[in-house]
Amino acid sequence: MGSGTKSLFDLSGKVAVVTGGNRGIGFGMARGLARSGAAISLWARDEARNEAAAKELATSGVEVQTVGCDVSSERAVEEATQATLHRFGRVDIGIANAGVGAAADSLKLKLDEWHRILAVNLDGVFLTLRELGKHMAGREGGGKLIAISSVSAQHGTPLQPHYAASKGGIESMVRSFAVRLAKYDIQVNAVEPGWIETEATATGFANQKLKDAILRRTPARRLGQPEDMEGIAIYLGSDASRFHTGDTIRVDGGYAIF
C-alpha cells in the first residue's frame, strides 16, 4: 500500500464479515467497505435477502459470500466463522450488526421477551466478537472489530428496556474486548447510530408525531440513511483508526446533544 490519504482508506485485499448485513445499517456499512475494496461475507438468516444484497455489493467489483446465520446460536456463529475462513482464508474486519427490536411497557415486559432480544442483540454480538477475535489474535496482522449500539443506550426508552439494556451492554463489552485484544493490534469500537430510516424503523416513523419530534430534536433536520453509515465503517475498518480503540462513536446528526 502506498502513501497518501487515498491509500489510508484502501481496503483492497481485506476481508470483512458483516452480520445482519443484508439490509439497513448493516448493508450500508457493508457497501462502504465494498466500495473501498474489501471482500464481504454477509451473515444473516434471510437467505433470499442475502443473495439480493450480495448481488448489489458485487457491483463494486469485490468478492461476496453469503452465510445463513442466526447469531444467537453459538454453533451457528462458529460454523459461519469456519465457512468464511474456508472461503477467504482470513477475516480482517468484523462488524457485529445483527439485532432485533421490539416495544414493550417496562412494567409489563415478560422475561421470555427480555431473553429473546438479548439473545440476538447482546449474546450474538459477544459470540461474533469472540469467534472473530479468536481468529484475529491467532494470526499476525491485527484486525478490526466493530459492534453496533444505539443512542438508546444513552437515552431513557420506557418501551424498550430490553433493547436499551442490550445496547448499553454492547458498549461495555467493547471496552473489555478492546483491552484484551490491543496487544494483537486489534482495535475494537462501537458505533451508536441515531434515527436511521430503515425497514426496522419504518413502523415508528409512520407515526408522524414521533417523526416530527425526532426531526425537531435533530440539528441536521433529517433522518439518517443507511449510506450515512458507510464512512464510519470505512474509517473503523481501515488503518486510519489503528490507534483508536475502546470507543463509542455516535452517528446521529446531532440528536444526542440537542
Give the count of helical stretches: 9
SSE topology string:
HEHEHEHEHEHEHHHE
The overall pLDDT, averaged over residues, is 95
Distance between the termini: 41 Å
**Shape field:** globular
Radius of gyration: 18 Å
Q: Which segments are poorly predicted (pLDDT under 50) over 5 or more consecutive residues?
A: none
| Share of residues in strands | 5-15%
What topology, given as strand order, has the largest sheet? 3-2-1-4-5-6-7
Give a quick account of the main beta sheet: strands, pairing sense, barrel closure. Answer: 7 strands, parallel
Q: How many β strands by DSSP? A: 7
Structural class estimated from helices and strands: alpha/beta
- Share of helix, binned: 40-55%
Defining traits:
258 residues, alpha/beta, 9 helices, 7 strands, 43% helix
Summary of the model, kept short:
Strand 5 (143-148), helix 6 and strand 6 form a beta-alpha-beta unit. This protein has nine helices and seven strands, in the order H-E-H-E-H-E-H-E-H-E-H-E-H-H-H-E. The chain is 43% helix and 15% strand.
